[in-house]
Amino acid sequence: MYGFSTKFNGSYDEAIESVTQELAKEGFGILTEIDVKATLKKKLDVDKRPYIILGACNPTLANQAISAEPDIGLLLPCNVVVREEEDLSITVSFMDPEAVLKLVNHPDVQGLAAQVKEKLLRVRAALS
């Protein structure tokens, strides 16, 4: 599996705010916000439920990863998806850094991936 998720007890906007705050507690900032719903409406005139991709980055760990493997930026940042389901519930999903970074055959990167996963699992637990 390449990710893990949780249901959020609150609104879509509250989920984005909460996940951003919880990520900050673990040293992550949001580098990018991709509003998939708005993009698909603009580009394809397709109506979708609210769906946003947050590109989260922990600068300290990202620096260590880039130092170990310069091309690792191809696999960064850690994406977090907040989406509204058909039943109007909210799901927050996280990229599993260990699964993604297995593509990089470097022991230092594997250790960093485990650290990042621990942090993201704490964020998920705080949202549950």
From TrEMBL:
SUPFAM superfamilies: TT1751-like. Pfam families: DUF302. InterPro entries: DUF302 (IPR005180), TT1751-like_sf (IPR035923), UCP021774 (IPR016796). CDD domains: DUF302. It comes from the Bacteria. Residues 34-97 form the DUF302 domain. Gene3D superfamilies: TT1751-like domain. PANTHER family: SLR5037 PROTEIN (PTHR38342). This is DUF302 domain-containing protein. It comes from Vibrio gelatinilyticus.
